[in-house]
């Protein structure tokens, strides 16, 4: 087979229709990167059936359509056509000329044609399967495919050998057989489950059917005698009840008479008791008050005595404290007078001491100065006065110099100050400029920080919403799976319900023909709604009645019966709405139930039904009572004299008449009510799950919208952040410039400030020195004046000293003696003054405490005086009340004695009246009980007559051939009952149900055999396919391995290589490649260099082509990783396949181009549109 041509029209960059014709040999396709060369290969893969959009470098399949350019509008369709010459019959059962077309439209619709005939994509894929020309076969080899060979795992390389071996169709067939086997196994499991269920139904039904036939025969006789017995019993009990009711009327009159008498006496006794109780209450209160007053008298007397004693003691304390206070106050006044005198005396003595001390000091100083010393002092003062005069002259000269220097410095300082102001203004301007630049920089940083923070927040939101979206998707899948499971279970149960599995044959046929038969409403199980907690009880009590068919009229029932009889479809029981009569409890029965324990309710009141069917419900359950347990059921049954049917929540039954049934099976069958409840529960769950699924889907969409919004916000933020960062850089540069300028201005200002500071220091120094000189001059002038004054004083003193020294010595001695006497007196006065001060302090404290104590005593005396008066008043009142109360108590005691006698007499009369009333009531109750019992028995008998025989008493009593001997009737009934009891519970529908179940069981058993045979055949076919796959794989592997060992040294110019299997199982083994290029050791492919790996992979592909030649091979830059030498070997080796295989080579390598038989160039002369051009081999060589 040969590839004749490939036509592209609107496919990717090939906007115009482009046809590429291929000749035998090697066709090269060249062109710059991005020109559209690879689009040719993708077009070839696409037309051969490629379905992966990702492998075509697209997002969705319509992406392969030309998307438009700056000068061209987008196209709405893409088409690729491949023309093949199949004259050699390479593709079996195909014509010699084969044209395959694939189209796709912008709306996603696709067309596939073989020789202009529309086909499916699968037909194209199957056409090339195992031919080596498929979309993923080894006939299309790209650089990525070469890399995939040496990068893939051994198990992934196995696919290459399988493609060569042509086993993919076997694997596909096996996969298809595997699916069929799984489906068959699923069918088998379902059939087996149904057969098991039917078998479990069939066994007991077979036995039940036999028992049912026996039961029907005995039941017919029993019903006759039971009817006879009921008629006789009703007649006898009716007569007995009439007699009791006559006696009861007489007793009721007597009860009324005794009741009225007893009521009057009871009222009289009650009044006397009330008076007695009121008197006793008043007497008790008066006596309690009397005791209380006696206690108050004693208490008030004691309190009065205590208050008087306390008042007397407080008076004594007050008087004693007052006397001590007067003494202390007198002593205090005397001490203060003494203290004043001592202070005056102390001041006089201290003044005397000071005067004496001053005199002594003067005389001592004068005595120490002698004449020589005075002469020396006078001379010294003259010398010092001379020196000071010289210093004054020098300072006056310095003062004149410093004054001139100060004036010059002030002039220089004024000039420097002006310059400093100029520099200060420039500095402030630069500082303001820096401040503004800094503010701009901070603002830019803040903006960037905020945007960074916002980016972090948005990124976090994206992660959060992505996680939420993923969680919602997971929840959706989980909810969807649960919903599918529930729907499957619902459909299964619904199918069971609609096919009426579990119903008697006759009932099933009527219900299935509901559309044909007029007036059929449905089975009882269908029309009633039973709460789950009561389903077991009602399933047991209704049993086969659940399959009774409700119809509108008796005519509809007749029509359905005729339908069953005419077609021999079985039997059914019908409940016509217009003839079925209600059954209900009597008032008496309800009263009895109200007094019993464990009552759940009347069964008909626990079930919901349409209003039209309420009579039917009352007929079935109106006289059935539901109780909690069997123990309570037996108690209630006895209380009702076994007149009603009672069922427990567990399904145990106490029938009217006393018979009981109950127990449990080892494997409980799901009843019709429970089946209906499960169906309703599943329907509710499905609605709930749909709602939940919708909620989850809505939340998922919200999460997706939030995720999309967050991603868009991140994208929108990016340019803002970029602009802010750019502005931040600009502000940083401006800030740096302003900082440099400010630093320059600051240096100039500092230099000028330093110069100014030096000038100021010099000026200040001059000022300071000038001031110092002025100060020194002032000091010298003062010192000179003082020296002159001292010199005059000393000179005069020297003259006086010479005459007065002797007199002063005598005065000094006398003054020292007088001073010693004064000091002793001063010490004595100080001691006296300290003692007096201490005494004054102690007396002052005592006086303050005494005054405080007197104030407290005065308050307590006033309080105590008031208490004494209050106690006296209270005591007088209590005495008066006590005397009056004693007289009242005495009168009440006399009244109590009189009333007690009256009460005793009234109680005796009441006792006699009550006894008469009780006797009459007892007799009335006994007769009423007998009447109620007979009424209940009659109701029970009438109910039994209606339930068991569907007759009223009037109709039954008119029947002919009834026995009149009740004893004979009861004996026959007992014998028949024993026979029926031995049979136990009988399923009357078991006969028809057994026939239906057995028929279905046999049908499904045959179907199971057919499925088992089909399963065995599928397993056998799969084993045969596995054997064929193993055989082909082994044979092909050995051939490819042999060819690989031959081709590897041919391409590498030496060395060796080997293919090996990683596992003995030919169905799962991988393929390992070992190679030894020249000069290297024998090692795995992964340890070779990149070029060696690529050439080894190419050698393997050549080996495959040698074993399984294909009509054409596409090489898409497969040699890209090879160096020039290896490219030459690669291109030369391609010549070995000449005549067997066409090569379409896309390449950039000159060595490959040189060996091409024909070259096509791909270029984009127009932007975005690929064109095919011819390439001159001569130009290529140049």
TrEMBL record:
Keywords: ATP-binding, Coiled coil, Cytoplasm, DNA-binding, Nucleotide-binding. It is found in: Cytoplasm. One of its GO terms (biological process) is sister chromatid cohesion. Homodimer. Required for chromosome condensation and partitioning. It holds the Pfam family SMC_hinge. GO terms for molecular function: ATP binding; ATP hydrolysis activity; DNA binding. It comes from the Bacteria. InterPro entries: P-loop_NTPase (IPR027417), RecF/RecN/SMC_N (IPR003395), SMC (IPR024704), SMC_hinge (IPR010935), SMC_hinge_sf (IPR036277), SMC_prok (IPR011890). SUPFAM superfamilies: P-loop containing nucleoside triphosphate hydrolases (SSF52540), Smc hinge domain (SSF75553), Tropomyosin (SSF57997). The keyword ATP-binding applies. GO terms for cellular component: chromosome; cytoplasm. Residues 518-637 form the SMC hinge domain. It comes from Ligilactobacillus agilis. The keyword Membrane does not apply. Contains large globular domains required for ATP hydrolysis at each terminus and a third globular domain forming a flexible hinge near the middle of the molecule. These domains are separated by coiled-coil structures. ATP binds at residues 32-39. CDD domains: ABC_SMC_barmotin. This is Chromosome partition protein Smc. Residues 227-454, 672-923 form a coiled coil. Belongs to the SMC family.
């Amino acid at each position: 087979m040969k590839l004749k041509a490939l036509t592209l029209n609107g496919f990717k960059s090939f906007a115009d229709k482009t046809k590429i014709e291929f000749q035998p040999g090697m066709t090269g396709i060249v062109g710059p990167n991005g020109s559209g060369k690879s689009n040719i290969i993708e077009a070839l893969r696409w037309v051969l059936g490629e379905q992966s959009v990702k492998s075509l470098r697209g997002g969705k399949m319509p992406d392969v359509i030309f998307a438009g350019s700056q000068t061209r509008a987008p196209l709405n369709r893409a088409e690729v056509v491949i023309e093949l010459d199949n004259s050699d019959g390479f593709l079996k059962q195909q014509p010699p000329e084969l044209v395959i077309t694939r189209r796709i439209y912008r709306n996603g619709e696709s067309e596939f044609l073989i020789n202009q005939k529309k086909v499916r994509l699968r037909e194209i894929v199957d056409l090339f399967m195992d031919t080596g020309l498929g979309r993923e076969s080894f006939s299309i080899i790209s650089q990525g495919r070469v890399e995939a060979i040496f990068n893939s795992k051994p198990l992934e390389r196995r696919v290459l050998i399988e493609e060569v071996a042509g086993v993919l169709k076997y694997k596909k067939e096996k996969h298809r057989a595997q699916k069929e086997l799984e489906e068959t196994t699923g069918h088998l499991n379902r059939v087996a489950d149904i057969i098991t269920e039917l078998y479990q139904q069939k066994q007991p039904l077979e036995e039940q059917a036999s028992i049912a036939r026996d039961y029907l025969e005995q039941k017919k006789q029993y019903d006759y005698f039971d009817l006879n017995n009921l008629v006789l019993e009703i007649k006898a009990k009716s007569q007995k009840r009439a007699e009791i009711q006559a006696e009861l009327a007489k007793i009721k009159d007597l009860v009324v008479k005794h009741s009225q008498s007893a009521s009057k006496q009871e009222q009289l006794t009650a009044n006397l008791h009330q008076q007695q109780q009121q008197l006793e209450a008043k007497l008790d209160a008066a006596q309690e008050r009397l005791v209380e007053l006696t206690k108050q008298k004693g208490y008030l007397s004691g309190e009065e005595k205590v208050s008087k004693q306390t008042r007397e003691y407080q008076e004594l304390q007050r008087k004693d404290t007052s006397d001590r206070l007067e003494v202390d106050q007198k002593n205090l006044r005397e001490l203060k007078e003494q203290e004043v005198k001592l202070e005056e005396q102390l001041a006089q003595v201290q003044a005397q001491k000071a005067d004496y001390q001053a005199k002594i000091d003067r005389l001592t100083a004068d005595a120490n100065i002698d004449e020589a010393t005075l002469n020396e002092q006078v001379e010294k003062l003259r010398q010092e006065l001379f020196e000071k005069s010289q210093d004054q002259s020098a300072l006056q000269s310095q003062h004149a110099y410093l004054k001139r220097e100060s004036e010059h410095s002030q002039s220089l300082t004024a000039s420097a100050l002006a310059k400093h102001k100029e520099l200060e203004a420039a500095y402030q301007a630069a500082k303001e400029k820096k401040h503004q630049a800094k503010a701009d920089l901070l603002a830019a940083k803040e903006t960037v920080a905020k945007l960074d923070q916002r980016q972090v927040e948005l990124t976090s939101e994206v992660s959060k919403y992505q996680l939420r979206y993923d969680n919602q998707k997971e929840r959706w899948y989980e909810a969807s799976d649960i919903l599918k499971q529930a729907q499957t279970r619902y459909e299964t149960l619904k199918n069971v319900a609609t096919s009426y599995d579990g119903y008697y044959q006759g009932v099933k046929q009527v219900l299935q023909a509901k559309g044909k038969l007029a007036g059929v409403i449905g089975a009882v199980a269908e029309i009633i709604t039973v709460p789950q907690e009561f389903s077991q009880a009602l399933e047991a009590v209704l049993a086969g009645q659940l399959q009774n068919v409700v119809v509108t009229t008796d005519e509809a029932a007749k029509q359905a019966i005729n339908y069953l009889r005419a077609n021999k479809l079985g039997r059914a029981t019908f409940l016509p709405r217009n003839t079925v009569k209600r059954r209900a409890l009597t008032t008496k029965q309800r009263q009895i139930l109200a007094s019993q324990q464990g009552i759940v309710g009347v069964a008909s009141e626990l079930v919901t039904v349409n209003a039209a069917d309420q009579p039917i419900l009352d007929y079935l359950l109106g006289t059935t009572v539901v109780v909690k347990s069997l123990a309570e059921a037996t108690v209630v049954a006895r209380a009702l004299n076994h007149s009603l049917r009672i069922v427990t929540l567990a399904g145990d039954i106490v029938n009217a008449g006393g018979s009981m049934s109950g127990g449990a099976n080892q494997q409980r069958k799901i009843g019709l009510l429970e089946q209906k409840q499960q169906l309703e529960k599943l329907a509710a769950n499905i609605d709930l799950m749909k709602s939940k699924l919708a909620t989850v889907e809505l939340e998922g969409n919200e999460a997706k919208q939030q995720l999309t919004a967050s991603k868009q916000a991140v994208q929108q933020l990016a340019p803002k952040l970029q602009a802010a960062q750019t502005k931040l850089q600009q502000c940083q540069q401006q800030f740096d410039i302003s900082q440099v300028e400010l630093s320059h201005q600051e240096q100039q200002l500092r230099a000028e400030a330093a110069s100014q500071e030096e000038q100021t220091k010099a000026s200040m120094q001059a000022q300071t020195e000038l001031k110092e000189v002025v100060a020194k001059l002032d000091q010298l002038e003062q010192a000179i004046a003082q020296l002159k004054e001292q010199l005059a004083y000393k000179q005069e003193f020297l003259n006086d000293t010479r005459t007065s020294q002797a007199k002063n010595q005598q005065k000094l001695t006398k003054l020292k003696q007088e001073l010693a006497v004064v000091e002793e007196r001063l010490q004595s006065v100080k001691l006296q003054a300290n003692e007096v001060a201490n005494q004054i302090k102690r007396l002052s404290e005592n006086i303050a405490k005494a005054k405080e104590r007197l104030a407290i005593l005065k308050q307590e005396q006033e309080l105590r005086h008031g208490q004494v008066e209050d106690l006296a008043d209270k005591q007088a009142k209590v005495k008066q009340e006590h005397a009056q109360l004693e007289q009242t108590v005495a009168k009440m005691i006399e009244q109590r004695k009189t009333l007690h006698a009256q009460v005793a007499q009234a109680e005796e009369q009441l006792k006699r009246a009550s006894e008469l009333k009780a006797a009459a009531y007892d007799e009335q109750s006994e007769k009423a009980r007998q009447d109620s019992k007979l009424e209940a028995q009659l109701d029970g008998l009438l109910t039994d007559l209606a339930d068991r025989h569907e007759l009223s008493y009037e109709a039954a009593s008119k029947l002919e051939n009834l026995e009149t001997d009740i004893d004979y009737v009861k004996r026959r009934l007992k014998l028949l009952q024993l026979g029926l009891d031995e049979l136990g519970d009988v399923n009357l529908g078991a006969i028809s149900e057994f026939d239906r179940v057995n028929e279905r069981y046999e049908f499904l058993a045959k179907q199971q055999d057919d499925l088992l045979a089909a399963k065995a055949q599928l397993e056998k076919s799969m084993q045969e396919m596995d054997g064929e796959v193993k055989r082909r794989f082994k044979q092909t592997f050995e051939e490819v391995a042999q060819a690989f060992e031959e081709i590897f040294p041919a391409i590498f110019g030496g060395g060796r290589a080997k293919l090996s299997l990683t596992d003995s199982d030919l169905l799962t083994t991988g393929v390992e490649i070992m190679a030894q290029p020249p000069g290297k050791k024998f090692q795995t492919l992964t340890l070779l260099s990149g070029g060696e790996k690529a050439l080894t992979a190419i050698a393997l592909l050549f080996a495959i082509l040698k074993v399984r030649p294909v009509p054409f091979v596409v090489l898409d830059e497969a040699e890209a990783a090879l160096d020039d030498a290896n490219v030459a070997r690669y291109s030369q080796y391609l010549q070995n396949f000449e005549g067997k295989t066409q090569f379409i080579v896309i390449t950039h390598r000159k060595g490959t181009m040189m060996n091409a038989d024909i070259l096509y160039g791909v270029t984009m002369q127009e932007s975005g549109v690929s064109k095919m051009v011819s390439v001159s081999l001569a130009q290529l060589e140049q």
